[in-house]
Amino acid sequence: MTEIHHTPNTELFRKVWEQIREEPGSFDMITWENDSAPPDFWNWKIGSWEERTCDTTRCVAGWAVHLTDPTRDFQYAVCALYGEWGLEADSRYSPDVMVGARLLGLPDEVAQTLFLEAPDTVAAEVVELFAEGDNDAAFACLERWVAYGEE
């Protein structure tokens, strides 16, 4: 089995942050990947509804997987990477969470919170902080949200 190192992948976080910043309508923490997204979305940057500018939306993990290998379908990519890395099933975390965690260099429990629990505003802030290399602030932001529900 592959040894796991938990060093945030700043380069991949930068790519995800660029995608989120440049196309806010492509970012939605509700779905890993959705090719038939509704025509409008809640723009977390300005706090209002806007028309989508692209057809596909992805969450943080979805963009990490896509930006790592844009030629693969999301679920195929997750299954392939899960198998390539020799990951073992863990009832606490889905394969999607485990693969996203490995790509982004996060512990599974942090990835679980970021991918499945944090709202768009918190997730975007955390991605931006990791992209800037401010790992302590990113972890603190997630911890604050878990403890107090503060956005």
The fraction of residues in strands falls at: 5-15%
* Number of E-state strands: 4
Describe the largest sheet: 2 strands, antiparallel
Number of helices: 7
Radius of gyration: 15 Å
Features:
single chain, 151 residues, mainly alpha, two-stranded antiparallel ribbon, 4 strands, 8% strand, globular
Give a description of the structure.
The chain is mainly alpha-helical and 151 residues long. It has one domain (10-148). It is built from seven helices and four strands, in the order H-E-E-E-E-H-H-H-H-H-H. Strand 2 (40-43) and strand 3 form a beta hairpin. Helix 1 (10-22) packs across helix 2 (60-68) and helix 2 crosses helix 4 (95-104). The longest helix is centred in the C-terminal third of the chain and has 14 residues, at 135-148. It is globular, with a radius of gyration of 15 Å. The mean pLDDT is 78.
